[in-house]
Amino acid sequence: MLQTPPPVPPAAVVEVTATRFPEDPAKVPASITVLTARDLAERGATDLCSALGLLAGVSVAPGGDTGPAGSVPEFWGLKEFDAFLLVVDGVPWGGAFNPALSTLSLEGVERIEIQRGAAPVMYGATSFVGVIHVIRGLPADAKGSVRLSAGSHGSFGGAISLRLPAGAATDSTLTVDHDTQGFEDPRTGFKRTHLLWRNRVQALAGVFRFDLEGTATDQQPASPFPRVGRALTSQIPLDANHNPAGAFLDDRRFTFTTGYDRTLDPALLWSTTLSVSRARQDAFRGFLTDVSSVAPNAHGFRERVDLTDVYFDTHLTWTAGSALKVVAGLDHLHGQGRGRGGDFDYFVNLDGAGAPGAAALPSQAAIRIDDRRDFSGLYAFAQWQVAPRLVVEAGLRLTRAEEARRTSTLDFASGTLAGGSDTRTTTRLGGSAGATWTAWQRGEDRVNLYAGLRSTFKPAAMDFGLDSGARILKPETATSYDLGLKADLLERRLALELSTFLMDFENLVVPQSAAGAPVLVNAGKERFQGVEASAAWRFTHDLAARLAYSYHDARFRDYAKDFGGGTLTQLSGKRLEMSPYHLGGLGLAYAPAQGLVVTAELNYVGAVFLNQRNTAPAGGYATWAASLGWREKTWEVRLDGRNLTDRRKPVAESELGDAQYYLLPGRQLALSARYRF
User: What are the residue ranges spanned by the domains of the chain?
Assistant: First the structure.
């Protein structure tokens, strides 16, 4: 006779992204998912694309303009490189400019918190559609681990994480990892070396924190695939690389973060964080400008960008029993960027052969870009348990954003010097409000209903491309509303979530071609709305499943654009390019502590339009991933496969190459072994 397996104890899952204090995500009036180290290990997830692949409302396109080590996350149907916020251990990763995704390593991650929707209160660099918060740390009972891996296309890697010998009042850990990743595309790949030294010291009635982190990422960029008319061209081989010979995207990022946490009395906690980051980005790359064999048919650039980011936050968290929690603080985010480079024309065969190198491609101009950003904020947030089943919360942030920019271009052929400068200061309130009501509860099982309202703004994106103009664009603003249901059933074995959202957006920054060169412009008004549903069911301690579905409707409401010829075309009612109606995911993982490990995942991305006029459709597609491995108490060996059906669909639009799209990377296989001690 079969016996019913014993109940799985409810997991002590908490989040800090939305509130800054540990909180049960079910009590937060926003759609939040927490992926633990166990979740990632069961599925063999080693990057954001694989980690977030089974979440409702999220789609992560690997690669993009930032190189094969980067990615382009999409939340709520908006795929904009700075519309979401990347946070690492409480610090905006990428500072005042853009998320530094190509330098992000997931080695030694304790958990990843994903919030769908705006985060207008807690961080100086805000988000409109989502937050990805990566939190690192070794398990308290672990001394460390070692990883080795090898895969297709010459890929290999290794990592070591150690808890270092220290005194009774000190916790010190060291993580060092390196990964070399190859791809099916010729002359495409990346190498990333990462070091993180973390320290916690109990002193002066509190805890001092200081971390040193360094990342070196060397990339060989792929080429986006051109569209001619309504479809991707058939004149170019699938894996052609039109970059100049020896093209590279190199990034060096060094970060020092320190902080102090102290309990002033049992109800009052003071926390302060200071983070200083220095980055250098070197680029030499190019793009087709014309699908023809007439020279020149490509345009490239070489550039060096130096970035300095400083983030400071200090806040108090006050808890009045279990009924009231208040956070109040101030922060400042400073960003300083300097770009120096030049551009050039060149010729490359349509199959990518015959690409000239740097020596044959002198710059035709000297281009200089300097930009400074300062965001200063005062914020307050309160959560109140009004009744045993009702929690309300509200927060406000007053932000003063200052930006100054200066550009100059010296054309070597004509000797003309052009450029200009601009400044913009914006002071504005943003905030959020919401409520969560426990509609039903029995033991550990419960059904919560929630509603939220958020209003936010942020300065327009700045990418330091050599085509960047001196004029500073208008700030982007958004107001969003969401309603949802969160349920924990079957003694917390089954977690269900259903949500619906509506967001009105103004001044969205989009790429546009001007005189053959890509530029960024404000795009009037847009509306994003949709429904998202997910289920996570742990059948037994070792067997779990995830199911996710999203329907997103992202449309222009008022945006007139000149597509050439001097005539404006009104795009009201048109869907945003590369934004699918439907997203879906289904995954099953059998991962006991010892023995056979098997996982399988199916992801679906619906049909999209490749252009803003909605005249170039691209069909939907599904991809499969799977893994097979064996675990023992201290070691594990596994084989992981991604995109097993080898689909090569367009997944992200280039903002540097006009009407060009990055394709989904081909099939990847990786064999890895990990030893824990």
Answer: 25-676
